[in-house]
Each structure stands twice: as C-alpha cells, then as structure tokens.
Amino acid sequence: MEISVYSIAKNKDGFGIEEYIKMAQKYAKIEDVILFNNKIAKAQSISKDESLRCYDEIYASRISGFCIGLDERGKLFDSQEFAKLLDSKAKISFFIGGAYGLSSEFKSKMDMIISLSSLTLAHKVAKLVLYEQIFRGLCINAGHPYHK
C-alpha cells in the first residue's frame, strides 16, 4: 500500500509527523510531499481566487489512486471508519489545501472529501492529526493493539 499526503506549506511541518511516518512504514509506504513555490507565494498576496488556481495547478499532476481531499465541511469519520477507508486500497492520495483550502473544482475531482474535526484546525495541527489517524487506521487493520 502507498499513501501520499500532499500539502501546500512554506516549510517542513515537524510537529512529530516524522515519528508517525516512521512507525507507519511497516504497514505502508508513506510519502510526505510539501509543495510551495514563488508563484503560490505571490498568488496568496494577490487574492483567494488566484491562490486556489495556483493550488489546483500544482496539485493537478499528482491526482492518482484513491484521492481524498481534506475540508472542514467534509464527511466526519471515527477511527474505525477511517481504518476501513484505508483498507484494501493500493494507493491513497490525501490533499491538504493551502491558506484558502481547496477549490470546488479540485474537490470535485476527489473520490471523497473528509473532515478531521468540526473544529477549524491550524494547517500543522490538521496534518499531525491526519498522520496519527493514518497510523492508527493501519494499526487497526493489522490487528495491532495501538488502538484500544
């Protein structure tokens, strides 16, 4: 199984994400892809619409496998349901939007839109929660006692 997490950020997030990636490697190949360039930086200073267009452009070539977009208005899952979402898929791609989220057009290309919480989360916190839930879901599917 391959899992790719795509995010738009100025720098590597840290926040303990590397630990979850390392622990999850025994169950799946995990790829953390952080995208940012001068075009995005400029677009974010111009407008929301221009930013969303740039996000779409940079993400378009990365759509592969079962694609999941993160959005605060997406479907909420508990950990057991999230584990089922991961089960029996060869490749999953998660997309985390930039400062303005993901465009409606890009979200329409996703197989599913999910929410990690009803709360609004900072980008780094959302990414950490996603990685923890990926690890937890893989453990549930493998019968590992991490999830109690």
Automatic annotation (TrEMBL):
<feature type="binding site">
    <location>
        <position position="97"/>
    </location>
    <ligand>
        <name>S-adenosyl-L-methionine</name>
    </ligand>
</feature>
<keyword id="KW-0963">Cytoplasm</keyword>
<keyword id="KW-0808">Transferase</keyword>
<feature type="binding site">
    <location>
        <begin position="116"/>
        <end position="121"/>
    </location>
    <ligand>
        <name>S-adenosyl-L-methionine</name>
    </ligand>
</feature>
<keyword id="KW-0489">Methyltransferase</keyword>
<keyword id="KW-0949">S-adenosyl-L-methionine</keyword>
<keyword id="KW-0698">rRNA processing</keyword>
<comment type="similarity">
    <text>Belongs to the RNA methyltransferase RlmH family.</text>
</comment>
<dbReference type="InterPro" id="IPR029028">
    <property type="entry name" value="Alpha/beta_knot_MTases"/>
</dbReference>
<comment type="function">
    <text>Specifically methylates the pseudouridine at position 1915 (m3Psi1915) in 23S rRNA.</text>
</comment>
<dbReference type="Pfam" id="PF02590">
    <property type="entry name" value="SPOUT_MTase"/>
</dbReference>
<dbReference type="GO" id="GO:0005737">
    <property type="term" value="C:cytoplasm"/>
</dbReference>
<protein>
    <recommendedName>
        <fullName>Ribosomal RNA large subunit methyltransferase H</fullName>
        <ecNumber>2.1.1.177</ecNumber>
    </recommendedName>
</protein>
<dbReference type="InterPro" id="IPR029026">
    <property type="entry name" value="tRNA_m1G_MTases_N"/>
</dbReference>
<feature type="binding site">
    <location>
        <position position="70"/>
    </location>
    <ligand>
        <name>S-adenosyl-L-methionine</name>
    </ligand>
</feature>
<comment type="subunit">
    <text>Homodimer.</text>
</comment>
<dbReference type="InterPro" id="IPR003742">
    <property type="entry name" value="RlmH-like"/>
</dbReference>
<dbReference type="GO" id="GO:0070038">
    <property type="term" value="F:rRNA (pseudouridine-N3-)-methyltransferase activity"/>
</dbReference>
